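Supplementary Methods. Inverse-folding protocol.

Structures were first reduced to a discrete structure-token string of length 133. This string, shown here, constituted the complete conditioning input.
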């Protein structure tokens, strides 16, 4: 007979349990995205997006602008699926934990888990700071 599951939060000090209870839960997959969301890195995300819209019928859902008119990253919708397109590959300030692996076929996979919801204005400020803007 298997032992009953243990509630690990019961082992935390009461102050930690109270803090954990006050932190809003976020979904590991942001609303509107699927379990796997492709993320491609290109020289100019804005220029690439214009082409994907014209040639493939994509719809732009969001973008993170940088100083000087460049775009750091944007989300394109193709039907019910999204593709993230980035000019630069930023750190975690957009709310995800991120890592990268290379498969034996030469493809790099960027893996992310959504950790917190970040307002677009905060992402834009952090992006500008990250690239010296």
């Amino acid at each position: 007979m298997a032992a009953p599951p243990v509630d690990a939060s019961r082992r935390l000090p009461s102050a930690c349990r109270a803090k954990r209870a006050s932190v809003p839960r976020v979904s590991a997959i942001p609303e509107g995205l699927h379990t796997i969301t492709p993320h491609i890195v290109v020289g100019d995300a804005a220029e690439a997006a214009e082409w994907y819209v014209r040639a493939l019928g994509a719809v732009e859902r969001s973008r993170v602008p940088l100083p000087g008119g460049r775009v750091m990253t944007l989300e394109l919708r193709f039907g019910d699926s999204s593709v993230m397109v980035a000019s630069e590959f930023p750190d975690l300030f957009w709310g995800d934990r991120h890592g990268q692996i290379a498969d034996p076929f030469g493809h790099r996979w960027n893996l992310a888990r959504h950790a917190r919801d970040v307002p677009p204005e905060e992402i834009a400020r952090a992006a500008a700071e990250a690239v010296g803007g």
